[in-house]
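Need tokens for this chain, all 145 residues.
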Amino acid sequence: MNEMLIRRIGKGITIVIVIITLTACSLFGGGEKKKEEAKKEAEAKSQESVIDQELKKQYQMFNEVIEYQKAQDIKLIKESEERYKKLKEEADKPTKGSSEEKQKAREAKIGKEGSGDSGSGENSDESGDASNSNDSSDSNASEEQ
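Here are the structure tokens for all 145 residues:
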């Protein structure tokens, strides 16, 4: 009976030692493996995949193209505004000149009427010529715009 009791106590002590050894290994040795695996997973997540990197490059290139197009549009708008101003100035100059021509023609007409020149047909021809020249300058100005 004593021998059986000693054997049972010996088996119990052996089981307790095995349990303590296994728990110690899992706490100290197994924990390092888990930590290493967690680090590897974190690194894998932090590193972007090749597809993601390529997509980012494509997106950056797309944004650069859009910015370039915007810059070209702004440049084109400025050039168009400058052309419009120049054309408008050129169109205004002949208009001013034609109004001066009209005034000179009127003064000449008044001067001829006042001097007593006969030839009402001549005056009508001159006024027709002046109106024709004004019409042609107006049509040229509208074509330039």
